[in-house]
What we know:
Mean pLDDT is 79; it is low at 191-201. The protein has helices at 6-19, 26-37, 51-69, 72-95, 99-116, 121-133, 141-172, 179-186, 191-195. The chain is 72% helix and 0% strand.
Amino acid sequence: MSFNTPEQIAQVAVDTGTKRAFLTPDKMLVGGFLAVKTGVVGTPKSPAGTPPALIFERLKAIATLKAVTETDWQIFLRALGCNWLVCLAVWLALSANDTGGKILGIFFPILAFVAIGFDHVVANMFFLPAAIFADVPGIGWADVLNNWLWAFLGNLVGAAVFVSTAYWFMYLRGTPDEGAAGSERAGQPGAESRLAPARRR
Length: 201
């Protein structure tokens, strides 16, 4: 679906951020467990120089940084910046009317947060349990849960305050709540055509 006005995009950003504020780690836990048990990620006993051993060393470096080296305040700030960029990527994708624009809108903010090494709680739900399953030394479940807590809080503030609240303040403040009415209209015949931008001739 494409959107014509900043107000429409702001409403979607606010609604989506509220509905998806809470996530469960079950799928990431299973993914990390399978990655180790199938040999994709190695262990300290993996032969040196093999792909599993190299992946283990990289996982060890990432997990140790996130679970041991970083302070709570650092995790929070890195998570804030992370979800600020992720939600801006979503905002830019919603703003674009064609596939190329959506790809470009998503690419650069995501590239930035990955390159900088910011903390995203969902990504950490994979990295940190995988490190425990792979027997990375010095990391326990208490370290993992502490990282998840501060990463979640930082992600929440980055999305809810710096994106959703900011655009609500700019475009939706003082306007009637049309979320429910918009949902009803979206289900009516012809609603899609009214929201879609005019086709170029």
